[in-house]
Amino acid sequence: MDRRDFLKTLAAAGAMLTVKSNGVMDIMASTLPGTATAQAAADNYADMAAIMNGEPAAMLRAALEQLGGIKRFVKKGDKVVLKPNIGWDRTPELAANTNPELIVEMIKQCQSAGAAEVKVFDHTCDEWTRCYDHSGIEKAVKGAGGIMVPANEESYYQEIELPKGKALKKAKVHKAILESDVWFNMPILKNHGGARLTIAMKNHMGIVWDRRAFHSQGLQECIADITTLSKPAALHIVDAYRIMTDNGPQGRNANDVVLTKALFASTDIVAVDTAAAKFFNQFRQIPLETVSHIENGQKLGMGTMDIDKLNVKRIKL
Amino acid sequence: MLKKIRVVLAIAVIAILTFGFIDFAGIIENPWLQKIQFAPALFSLSIATLIILVVGTLLFGRVYCSVICPLGIFQDLFNWIAKKTNKKKKYGYKPERPWLRWGILAALIVAWIFGFTFLVSLVEPYSAYGRMATQLFKPLYILGNNLLAVISEKTGSYTFFFVELTIRSVTSFTVAVLTLGIIGFISFKFGRTWCNTICPVGTVLGGLSRFSVFKVQIDTNKCNHCSLCSRKCKAYCIDSANQAIDYSRCVTCFDCIDNCKQNAIKYVPVWKKAKKVESASAPVDESKRQFLKSALAVATMTPATLAVKAAEHTCGCDIREKLVPLSPPGSISHKNLLQHCTACHLCISKCPSNVLKPAGLEYGIGGIMQPVMKFDKGYCNYDCTVCSEICPNGAIKPLTVEQKHKTQPGKVAFSQCQCVVEVNGTSCGACAEHCPTQAVRMVPYKNGITIPEIHPELCVGCGGCEFICPVKAIFINGNEVHLEAKEPENTKREAVEDFGFGF
Fold first, then answer.
1. Domains in chain B: ranges and CATH
2. Which one of A30, B59, B141, B347 has the largest count of C-beta atoms within 10 Å of its C-beta?
3. Mean pLDDT of all residues belonging to chain B
4. What is the nearest CA distance from B361 to chain A, expressed in angstroms?
5. Do residues A106 and A183 make contact, with C-beta atoms less than 8 angstroms apart?
6. Which residue from B249, B211, B213 is spatially nearest to B230, judged by alpha carbons?
7. Reported ipTM
8. What is the CATH number of the domain that holds A101?
9. pLDDT tens digits, residue range B433-487?
10. Span B353-393, pLDDT tens digits
């Protein structure tokens, strides 16, 4: 074998490893949550951006600016996935699903960083085609050049192990996430009858096929457990433009919704959920300790509830 | 020429109508060919449609049977295959058996009056075809779609998406297979014998078409008694020896016109030519009669013997044992459904959430195969009114979204002794999460967790709670007569004017 052949073989092997890089490689490659914060501090980025009084797109731009810009997360040629909440057959005004304007801006941001593709999906609760349609998200995503991915059938999912999980040891996760280079968690802040609040951690239930297992094996622990997956979201962007204070997560009508015009973003899922929960408590009292999946997440080392110790940028537009 | 027009129209009709049944993606929003079928028009008392069909038959004969009825067109397909595979295929003339036709029709009417709608459903041609389309053709269509989905996913496109492939009811699947087998066999061997012996719509329209204005008529001056028309007539209705046609059985397929080498057969108004006397009855073919009798017996008996027992629930709670089935919103009551539904399965096929399923014995023997709400695959979408819009029979009456929000086909029941919250002491709330009306809501329990509390008066019976409950502790009990759900109270929360980040 001459040197040229050797180099060719090496390059091919490298390419193969890159292509097949899910599973073991992911665990090796993934950054631990704690180190993400440490890294952020080192680079002088904010740990969390809290923005108020803007339209969804403007607030997202402001938040990304504080967090080091989109290029910190998305590299040229990346396959990107956005995971909003599209759980319900509801229009955007009813705040049951993530705001489509926010999703559109995020797609544009990813495209500006050179993303090869931006896929969007959610494992909906209501019939999926109606959710994708009436949430306004399918139309918005397609209009912005993103790809709406179905999540209605078990064959779209692949089983992964959750070695750190306490109650949930494995789960079937949507292949779009597993095959992506980077994914973003984009929940909406809402009241939730069982989990008390649904924010960034709870939004992970939409990447999973069998959710009944969550409910039967201890909901609050399973929510925390699923966030330990080897491929965590790069950033959690919480839509609090409109929040559902009552009858969540579905809501009955506009009486359950308050226009609050806020957005929270962080690489620390526990911190962002803590911040959003405290914001929510200004409108309706739901003690943080009853939203126990947040504390469970902290126990698993997924982040910190002690947000006072973090570098939080608070901006009112 | 007339035959060509007939064939083109028939192919278009069966293609569009079949697509209306198998189209899971809802490309055709409101299938309309289903609504101009005779039995649906009769059951829904669509006077305008009935008048058009009756007057049309009185003018042009049984055109309905050749270009509108899907089961008729379907039989012509088998007939065409039979002729293609056997060039010497011939039929000849058989005298009418009026007592059998009208006897069967009378028996079906009596069965319907006594609530055995199931028997009517079995032989009503539109519904028999609809069930074949839903139970047999749709799974094939989904299979094809799923293959395309595999390919398109590989290319990074999601134009085609996976759809779950299941047989929801063994009874209805078996009935559809038997219908296909029996009617396929009869049409392959004996042309339109089913239509002219058993089909109740064929009998009624046959009674009318005797008096139709336009008829296929033999020009006695041109006819050379070659009997080719008779041998090629799949309805066995041309008595070439006497140059007479039994118009009660002629389905105006125009095959005879096409085949006549003397150009002696024309489709013209009766006054164009003096009508010949219809031939007297000839000896009856006993073996065929016996065959048809046994075919009917098989068609009616098998589903009853194969019928699976109504779904049983494993829960030990007493309340479960009183489980009443849920008929679809808009069906008003079990009785209304029983009287109007001929189980065409259009609603079952089009239900986007896979809630509707053919009944086994839930409604009793008379209601076998009629749609019943089951929450094993999904739950009834709060804002969805698809089944009520498309039902051609008037068995499910149209509902607006507002009306549907107030319709209560059943109401929630809860056995707390089985609930995850009570048993494990952990949070759940899946039921309340899926409840669109807060008929199930989470109330404080202990240690900061919440437990379901039910308000059946608010329930719209959508089954969201029953579907999602991981331990089957909550479920819906049907209302035999649908009730009105109460309007839940709106949230009243004081507006917060002055707020900041809150941390």
1. 2-272 (no CATH), 318-484 (3.30.70.20)
2. B347
3. 89
4. 28
5. no
6. B249
7. 0.82
8. 3.40.50.11440
9. 999 999 999 999 988 889 999 999 999 999 999 999 999 899 999 999 999 999 9
10. 999 999 999 999 999 999 999 999 999 999 999 999 999 99
Distance from CA of A5 to the nearest CA of B (A): 31
| A137 shares a domain with A7 | no
Alpha helix (H) residue ranges in A22-87: 24-29, 33-42, 56-66
Closest chain A residue to B24, measured at CA: A129
pLDDT given at position B271 = 84
Least confident interval from B111-120, B312-321, B396-405: B312-321
Instruction: Say if residue A276 is in the same domain as residue A203.
Output: yes
- Helix and strand element counts for chain A (H, E): 12, 12
Please state the pTM of the whole predicted model: 0.85
A115 pLDDT more than 70: yes
Residue A269 reports pLDDT greater than 70: yes
- Do A26 and A37 fall within a single domain? no
Give the pLDDT mean for B247-253. Answer: 95
B432 → closest Cβ in A194, A253, A278: A194
Residue A191 backbone phi and psi in degrees, to 5: -70, 150
What CA dihedral angle connects A22, A25, A29 and A32, to 10 degrees? Answer: 80
Contact criterion met (CB below 8 Å) for A37 and A310: yes
Token couple for B184: 């396929």
Answer whether A135 touches B (CB < 8 Å).
Answer: no
CB < 8 Å from B in window 95-114 of A: none
Number of domains in chain A: 2
Contact B502 A280 (CB under 8 A): yes
**A7 and A73 belong to one structural domain:** no
Q: What is the pLDDT of residues A174-228, one digit of tens each?
A: 999 999 999 999 999 999 999 999 999 999 999 999 998 999 999 999 999 999 9
Nearest by CB to A150, from B158, B435, B500: name it. B158
**In contact, B269 and B214? CB cutoff 8 Å:** yes
Domain identity same for A90 and A103? yes
B142, B491, B497, best to mutate vs chain A, most A CBs in 10 Å: B491
Backbone phi, then psi, for B62, in 5-degree steps? -85, 55
CA distance A202 to chain B (A): 12
CB contact under 8 A, B490 and A253: yes
Across the range A257-265, mean pLDDT stands at 97
Asked if B424's CB is within 8 angstroms of A148's CB, the reply is no
- Per the listing, tokens 């009443």 go with B324
- Domain co-membership, A25 together with A58: no
A101 shares a domain with A17: no
Same domain, A18 and A131: no
Closest CA to A196 of A285, A301, A93, A91: A285
pLDDT for the residue B154:
86
Range of the domain at A306: 33-316
Residues of B with CB below 8 A from A47's CB? none
Reply yes or no on whether the pLDDT at B62 is more than 60. Answer: yes
User: Three-state DSSP class for B484?
Assistant: strand
